[in-house]
Design a protein that fits this description.
The protein has about 425 residues and is an alpha+beta fold. About 35% of the residues lie in helices and about 20% in strands. It is built from 15 helices and 12 strands. Strands 2-1-5-3-4 form a 5-stranded mixed sheet, with helices on one face. Strands 6-7-8-10-9 form a 5-stranded antiparallel sheet. A two-stranded antiparallel sheet has the order 11-12. A hairpin with a 3-residue loop joins strand 6 and strand 7. Helix 1 crosses helix 3, helix 8 crosses helix 15 and helix 11 runs antiparallel to helix 12. Bound molecules: adenosine-5'-triphosphate (ATP) and magnesium ion (MG). Adenosine-5'-triphosphate binds next to strand 6, strand 7, strand 8 and strand 10. It catalyses: L-seryl-[protein] + ATP = O-phospho-L-seryl-[protein] + ADP + H(+); L-tyrosyl-[protein] + ATP = O-phospho-L-tyrosyl-[protein] + ADP + H(+); L-threonyl-[protein] + ATP = O-phospho-L-threonyl-[protein] + ADP + H(+). Belongs to the protein kinase superfamily. STE Ser/Thr protein kinase family. MAP kinase kinase subfamily.
Length: about 425
């Protein structure tokens, strides 16, 4: 059986490989390679250099089955491309189709002014290795451009996200890692939330963080906070996101169940979206659930950058009341751990959370909440991770189904009323 699978694949690897080098605006050049599997990244760059002597090419791209461009910058990535290509060849052979050449798209290195259209910027002055500092956007896969949010495009078209263009206004809050400011982005006239985190780390780590944050450009969901860009200046990173005028859920007092239900639907959809991108949130809690007066609910502060999380963790002391028991006891973290935190975020009163590792899971007071709600929370907070609902079970849970009616007005009215109350309590400015 195994032989049947491996046999044709190896046979194919021994065949000649035709690489079609696409030249921007002027056709293509076919290059026949006799030792496909041994091909090195450097070899391909050399050949591209001969085809395009005017440009300095640092990377190239190929297209996956969805037409998304994938960047190749190393031998490892070359291997991934070849193995993907051979699998498509195998399919073409099985279907009796003509074998298509492997198409690649050289990426020329342009002057920094033109290149850094994403607004991502590494402050190279902060680090020692100035001469070898490729701009971070060098490593941006072009499919990060895919994000089609009109707002994002507007901002990117208006120029880079950088400190000079940002006017910091009020402080929105302090967290363990940093401070969030309401800020005005001068070129776009847009209000942003900018999280500033002090990080005394090397330039290499700064670059790693920037490259890990790239996935945020791909996140395109109405349940996830919009990302506009990030930049380092000296020892601090600024992460620019959409501003949510209702702030985070932790500042709201009692939330009626019909509002909470709609919020829970949005949070479950946001988490399901992240999980579909293989991102675990890792910090699900009310202060990372944001609302606005349009009735939208969005998740923020999910752990896309391991390096950022690690760097912040070095300065972070204390435990997090929303953490799943398996995480507190240092076991493996997974989707189920996000589900625990989801359950606990929607649970009142929160003081029941002490001693979660040793005690039985807390139970909601009966009578105050509907049966589906109590069941939903209880299921999310099963001590055994595997017993907690899987993503599709969350979406299909009666509590979520009941409130999954797309009614944003309920949340919108509740946010507006709460903000008004807050204003009237504070009195005139
Ligand atoms: P932790 O650091 O443990 O995650 P936290 O979530 O409270 O705690 P921050 O993420 O620094 O801390 O956020 C501080 C506060 O800033 C939040 O509680 C929230 O009220 C506010 N905030 C964060 N992002 C936004 C945003 N995009 N729009 C409006 N307010 C925001
Ligand atoms: Mg937060």
């Amino acid at each position: 059986m195994l032989w049947l699978v491996l046999g044709p694949f190896h046979a194919m690897e021994n065949q000649v490989l035709v690489i079609r080098i696409k030249i921007p605006n002027s056709g293509a050049v076919d290059w026949t390679v006799h030792s496909g599997p041994q091909l090195l990244f450097r070899d391909v760059l050399d050949v591209i250099g001969q085809v395009l002597p005017e440009a300095t090419t640092t990377a190239f791209e190929y297209e996956d089955e969805d037409g998304d461009r994938i960047t190749v910058r190393s031998d490892e990535e070359m291997k991934a491309m070849l193995s993907y290509y051979y699998s498509t060849v195998m399919e073409q052979q099985v279907n009796g189709q003509l074998i298509e050449p492997l198409q690649i798209f050289p990426r020329a290195c342009k002057p920094p002014g033109e290149r850094n259209i994403h607004g991502l910027k590494v402050n190279t002055r902060a680090g020692p290795s100035q001469h070898s500092s490729p701009a971070v956007s060098d490593s941006l896969p072009s499919n990060s451009l895919k994000k089609s949010s009109a707002e994002l495009k507007k901002i990117l078209a208006n120029g880079q996200m950088n400190e000079q263009d940002i006017r910091y206004r009020d402080t929105l809050g302090h967290g363990n890692g940093g401070t969030v400011y309401k800020a005005y982005h001068v070129p776009s006239g847009k209000i942003l939330a900018v999280k500033v985190i002090l990080l005394d780390i090397t330039l290499e780590l700064q670059k790693q963080i920037m490259s890990e944050l790239e996935i945020l450009y791909k996140c395109d969901s109405s349940y996830i906070i919009g990302f506009y860009g990030a930049f380092f200046v000296e020892n601090r990173i600024s992460i620019c996101t959409e501003f949510m005028d209702g702030g985070s859920l932790d500042v709201y007092r009692k939330i009626p169940e019909h509002v909470l239900g709609r919020i829970a639907v949005a949070v479950v959809k946001g988490l399901t979206y992240l999980w579909s991108l293989k991102i675990l949130h890792r910090d699900v809690k009310p202060s990372n659930m944001l609302v606005n007066t349009r009735g939208q609910v969005k998740l923020c502060d999910f752990g896309v950058s391991t390096q950022l999380v690690n760097s912040i963790a070095k300065t972070y002391v204390g435990t997090n009341a929303y953490m799943a028991p398996e995480r507190i006891s240092g076991e493996q973290y997974g989707i189920h751990s996000d589900v625990w935190s989801l359950g606990i975020s929607f649970m009142e009163p929160l003081q029941l959370l002490q001693c979660i590792v040793d005690e039985d899971s807390p139970v909601l007071p009966v009578g105050e909440f509907s049966e589906p709600f109590v069941h939903f929370i209880t299921q999310c907070m099963r001590k055994q991770p595997k017993e907690r609902p899987a993503p599709e079970e969350l979406m299909g849970h009666p509590f979520i189904v009941q409130f999954n009616d797309g009614n944003a007005t309920v949340v919108s009215m509740w946010v507006c009323r709460a903000l008004e109350e807050r204003r009237s309590q504070q009195g005139p400015p």
